[in-house]
Amino acid sequence: MFLHKVKVRWNDLDANGHLANASYIALMSATRVEYAQSLGFTFADFKKMMVGPVALKEDIHYFKEVFLGAPIYISQELLGASKNGVFYKIRHNFYDKDGNNFARGEMLGAWIDLKERKLTSLPLEVATKFFERNRTKDFHFFTKEETRTEGIKPENIDIISKTDWFGN
């Protein structure tokens, strides 16, 4: 299990004085960057490979409040991946200084070709580092179809006919 330690800062708080929803998302992302760096990969490396990570979905379950100044630990483990290496799922757990789990986040992501702007897989030597270690106990391989289980699809609108929504 990879752990990233941070301290809750003033700008991490919401109007209620506890760790804000947006901060959880940002901390999960920062943990993924720290994990990539721990494997020896930087943004420059991904730019050279012309590939980058994209978040397709993020869910968070909250168990307990966290306040300003608290040291926290965010874990990262690979929950699942497609066999072709295009899609992946990551589980993040949030812990206090005593190891109490106060939140859990899961992220569905994919890799994108930065030139073609289409989904792609990582080069094999890189994929091996990302996908063959640091797995959850319930790790599983999944298909592309399993990434869209909620049936949510885009619904376009005619912006011109809806301009009265904006007071125009």
Give your account of this protein's structure.
Helix content is 20%, strand content 38%. The chain is α+β, with helices and mostly antiparallel strands. It has a single domain, classed as Hotdog Thioesterase (Thiol Ester Dehydrase, Chain A), CATH 3.10.129.10. The chain is globular and about 45 Å long. The termini are far apart. The relative contact order is 0.18.
Name the helix and strand elements from N-terminus to C-terminus, one letter apiece: EHHEEEEEHE
Nearest-angstrom radius of gyration? 18 Å
Report the CATH topology name. Thiol Ester Dehydrase, Chain A
- CATH-defined architecture: Roll
The CATH top-level class label: Alpha Beta
Percent of residues in helices comes to 10-25%
Task: Give the SSE map.
Blueprint (H helix, E strand, L loop, with lengths): L1 E6 L13 H18 L4 H7 L1 E12 L8 E12 L4 E9 L5 E13 L4 E3 L3 H8 L3 E8 L26
Parallel strand pairs: 3-7
Antiparallel strand pairs: 1-3, 2-5, 3-4, 4-5, 5-6
Question: Can you summarize this structure?
Answer:
The chain has 168 residues and is of the alpha+beta class.
Task: List its traits.
168 residues; alpha+beta; Thiol Ester Dehydrase, Chain A; 7-stranded mixed β-sheet; 3 helices; 38% strand
